[in-house]
Amino acid sequence: MRKEERLATEIIEQLGGAANIANLASCMTRLRVQPVDESKVNITGIKNIDGVMGIVEEETIQIILGPGIVTRVADEVSKITGRDVSLVDEDSDNPFAGLADKTKADLKKKNATPFKLFLRRIASIFIPLIPAIVASGLIAGLTNVIIRSGADPESTVVKVLSLIGWGLFSYLFVFVGVNTAKEFGGSPALGGAAAIILYNPGLADITLFGEALVPGRGGLIGVMLAAAFIAFLERRLRKVVAASIDIIVTPTLALLITGVATLFILQPVGGLISDLITKGLLGLIEMGGIFAGLILAGTFLPLVVTGLHQGLTPVHMELINTIGDDPLLPILAMGGAGQVGAAFAIYFKTKNARLKKVIKGGLPVGMLGIGEPLIFGVTLPLGRPFLTACLGAAVGGAFQAFFNVATIAIGVSGIPLVFLVNTNEMVLYLVGLLIAYFFGFLFTWLFGFKEEMARNI
């Protein structure tokens, strides 16, 4: 029996049988199940299945299997149960909205602060774009390495690679506009049209208040403001425009009003916000230096646990658009590195065979920048190792901040990020990565883990 078949069969059994599965979904690392009767689910039994890295109990039962294998297991579960598999984002709160227990949903809503909800909305805009951003960034980074290695920038091969790698970033604003409008309940195409207004080269030919407009002013923040505004406007217009002429009048008025509002209000406001964010972060890193790196890297893992880290994507993009590179991403990438170091320490220290197996499965993907299996399967359930991982990350972040290591694009953290780092800083980034590994290991080995912690894993 293939591994995915065995896992699917054992998971279904511990879930209370095929008849107890109401809905099924999968994301990058998790199999998400909505049971008919939660009392029939054997959580301990699921945790003890060979190949399960961890489990998260929220509004759905989320079984952490790791990237790649989760898709194959989901397909097998679907074949056995006859349930279709929905694909959801990694940080989706509830892929079966409306089917989960209302009390749980209401409680979660009460505990959600406006700031968390704001970050989740921004994350929802960028999460669908991450595969394309990662792929494009990696190709762009490799192209940069090839050029720095002595290749002719005018050669056909380099030009083709540059075209493939940098193409997305040239038109990313359109995708952001489309996703923002969708997130705020508007027509995606109108969101894209609103975004194009901000980046249209024709802006340079328009003079307002004695100054020529600058295409791209406000960056992706301005795009999100414009797309959210047009979505809001579209929804309001549909309430008053007659249905017979809605398809013509509503989008026309929405785009026209948004265009004017963008030029006079939204673009200047977006530019101001962008300047405040980039200058503020750069000032913090420059003034704080090592201390800033310590704080930013050391507090990043808790943000990852909540899923709110995706809300920082526009901040990374604004830094790249404004100053040409991103000094924040290498610092935050140390969060995952500290956790890898902690996991290594636990692996060599524990005698728990199951815990060793979970770590063995999670370490490779953790080193490649996907930290969820180690977070939810190892460090977070154990408690103290999660804190020592943060301490290790803080040391690595201090190193990256001290040497001003920066990336030319955004992508996954871990080892792959080295290809996105400025070429002359690649060695420094790797040294910082090893430092975070080492101190995550050291702190966890000295005082982060005791064997009795593994009894309930």
TrEMBL record:
It comes from the Bacteria. GO terms for cellular component: plasma membrane. GO terms for biological process: phosphoenolpyruvate-dependent sugar phosphotransferase system. One of its GO terms (molecular function) is protein-phosphocysteine-N-acetylmuramate phosphotransferase system transporter activity. Its main location: membrane. The chain crosses the membrane at residues 118-140, 160-178, 190-210, 216-233, 245-267, 287-308, 328-348, 402-421, 427-449. The active site is at residue 27. It is found in: Cell membrane. It is a multi-pass membrane protein. Keywords: Cell membrane, Kinase, Membrane, Phosphotransferase system, Sugar transport, Transferase, Transmembrane, Transmembrane helix, Transport. It holds the Pfam family PTS_EIIB. The keyword Cell membrane applies. InterPro entries: Glu_permease_IIB (IPR036878), PTrfase_EIIB_Cys (IPR018113), PTS_EIIC (IPR003352), PTS_EIIC_1 (IPR013013), PTS_IIB_1 (IPR001996), PTS_Sugar-Specific_Components (IPR050558). CDD domains: PTS_IIB_glc (cd00212). Residues 120-457 form the PTS EIIC type-1 domain. This is PTS sugar transporter subunit IIC. Residues 5-87 form the PTS EIIB type-1 domain.
